Amino acid sequence: MKNYSYMTQGTCARQITFSLEDGKLHDVHFVGGCPGNTLALSKLLEDTDAARAVKLLKGNPCGDRGTSCADQLAIAVEQALKQGA
């Protein structure tokens, strides 16, 4: 299992950590952000196909920010997958 850490931009959450193993997401944690939403995302995404999660979450905005915690997670996971996770 490979661990990742991503410093977010434009969201209340400041950092996202997660692990990837065999193309699946594990242990997603947000530092900051809306606790209910980020905890729900973490639970829903456990053992989910990482590429599918990117497709579902990328581009989802929070208000007029142009991004969201979910979008930032998608960006982070996409970068990790490109690194050959």
TrEMBL record:
InterPro entries: CHP03905, TSCPD_dom. The keyword Nucleotide-binding applies. It comes from the Bacteria. Keywords: DNA synthesis, Nucleotide-binding. Signal peptide: none annotated. Belongs to the ribonucleoside diphosphate reductase class-2 family. Residues 4-81 form the TSCPD domain. It catalyses: a 2'-deoxyribonucleoside 5'-diphosphate + [thioredoxin]-disulfide + H2O = a ribonucleoside 5'-diphosphate + [thioredoxin]-dithiol. Its EC number is 1.17.4.1. This is ribonucleoside-diphosphate reductase. Coiled coil: none annotated.
